[in-house]
Amino acid sequence: MKIKALIFIIVFIVLLTGIAAAKPVITADQTYFDINTGLYVLKGNVFIQVNNRTITAGQAKVDMASLEVWGSGGISVTQDDIHFTGDSVYVCGANSQASIDGGVEFARTNLSIKANKVDFNWRSRIANFCGDVEVTQGNNRWKAANVVYNVDTDTFL
Length: 157
Fold this sequence. Notes:
This protein has one helix at 2-21; strands spanning 25-27, 30-34, 39-50, 53-63, 68-79, 82-92, 97-108, 111-121, 126-137, 140-150, 155-156. The protein is built from one helix and eleven strands; from the N terminus they run H-E-E-E-E-E-E-E-E-E-E-E. The protein has one domain: Sandwich (lipopolysaccharide transport protein A fold). Strand 6 and strand 7 form a beta hairpin. By secondary structure, the protein is mainly β. Strands 1, 2, 3, 4, 5, 6, 7, 8, 9, 10 and 11 form an eleven-stranded antiparallel sheet that branches. InterPro entries: OstA-like_N. This is LPS-assembly protein LptD.
């Protein structure tokens, strides 16, 4: 009986640790909850972190129920060595997808990609850059209308 109770306690602690790790950290200069829309409205120095994903913006709206974020004003989206910047972002956390618009830039060692828009999927690790795409890879530079890039394999598809 004591062993079953001990196992239950260990499983319970592990589950709580996993839940606590997924709790988002959200800060901003001004924060309020809009009762009419059900969204948290954040203004000034917005910082949102869930696990190892971080979004910064000048302003944002967050739906905690659907794990959606709409941000604007010099945004950045970062996870590990993946770093995007742009004018606005829409993140659907439930689908592990982000869409970044306006002056998009992506950079990592020996690679820089600029575009009008990028759609990124954290599960597939595929970034689809659209509109006036400029790629600089080492000493090579080229332009295209669309570019699809696999972040894990560091290859263009």
